[in-house]
């Protein structure tokens, strides 16, 4: 799988790490970064804990979204490459629906 890392995208001033998979021709996005934005978490640790709890709940519900997530190495805050959960755009959109607060905000717009 040939992947190239590009500079982090910014969403409302917050970085979202991502990687392009040339073979599959799709982007993989850091789930923790997306969760941090959607839950308005300033702390990576809190976003990671939120994702772990959400992942557990989705697994218990036998939700396929978690099954389709992957682990890839992305640059961490310390500059080192570390494994993190990633999902493609379709899976990210499904995850947004799994975060109750944000889903209600999006629907109300």
How are the elements arranged and paired?
Blueprint: E1 3-5, E2 9-11, E3 14-16, E4 18-21, E5 26-30, H1 31-38, H2 44-60, H3 64-67, E6 70-75, E7 81-88, H4 89-98, H5 100-108
Antiparallel strand pairs: 1-4, 2-3, 4-5, 5-7, 6-7
Helix pairs in contact: 1-2
Characterization of this structure:
The structure is a single chain. This protein is globular. It has helices spanning 31-38, 44-60, 64-67, 89-98, 100-108, and strands at residues 3-5, 9-11, 14-16, 18-21, 26-30, 70-75, 81-88. Strands 1-4-5-7-6 form a five-stranded antiparallel beta sheet. It has a two-stranded antiparallel ribbon with strand order 2-3. The model has no long low-confidence stretch (mean pLDDT 82). Helix 1 (31-38) crosses helix 2. The protein has one domain (3-108): Roll (Mlu1-box Binding Protein, DNA-binding Domain), CATH 3.10.260. The chain has five helices and seven strands. With 109 residues, the chain is α+β, with helices and mostly antiparallel strands. Strand 4 and strand 5 (26-30) form a beta hairpin.
